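re: that chain from earlier
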Amino acid sequence: MLRVMTSHTLETLELITGGNPAATPVASIVVLHGLGADGNDFVPIAQELDLDTIGPVRFVFPSAPVRPVTLNGGYEMRAWYDIHPPIGQSRQEDEAGLRESCALVQGLLDREAARGVPPARTVLMGFSQGCAMTLMAGLRAPQRLAGLVGLSGYLPLAARRADLSGARHARPGGGGAARHRVARRAAGAGLQGGVAHLPDGAFGLRAGGGRSQHLAGSGAGCGLMSGSAGFFSSRWRARVPMRVLFWRDMLLVGTLINVVFTGVALAMAASSMPMALAAAVHFAPLPYNLFLVVAVWRLPASALHRWASLAWLAFVTLV
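^ sequence. v structure.
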């Protein structure tokens, strides 16, 4: 069960591993999602991690604020900062948005410390835009963290290395120098995935089966939402870009689902099973198909996308 809570800063989800929601976490992992996603994005991955040898670990999944994204035509979606179209070989960076979100992320880290998990036992992790925020906030954190996990991202404001906190928080073994090496490597090339362990003894993760974790929210204004509900909610509330909703969810995944159900229905009809049952199987994806079409029309989509969605609905339903 996933509980969604809204605080005065960010909407967050929380997961406590080990199956005991009252357990005191020995470590925390704050996970930042990518552009257009939300805090639900990495919950399934966290549920696959076996952390029993470490003890109870608290995962924190914040959702970025909703803001217009210039690169996507000003369409409003969850984003840690605005993205501008490239100009020649350069791209304008949204410094104000970056620093605003950096402060929000630091607030999450401070909150973990206030709840009893020190920075030395807290990992900051992110994907895409979340990776950029991980590197920016992690390298500027006033206290060294257990580690930074960056997946497919880069270091924003790379030229502003003077305000990195590593030089102010050196540790035995070269903590400050290590932070600047991470900054240089991330700035020199797009980070495609990796872990930066800052203090000694940073704990590791291994894939496994632990699905018996508890999910709890933080803040005020509680609601309930499962992973599948998060999928439908984000699309119904027009928080998914058209390239995902139309091209992936509808044309790719939706068509595949309908082909599978149609194949099963044809096999049932060929095996002399009741035609009514075969027809029921064939039309089973219809509610999902209708949902996708309505979701496309709820977006500020072009007429081409809207009429193409209707044509797709007719094709997968009647063929």
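Confidence is low (pLDDT under 50) at residues 166-227.
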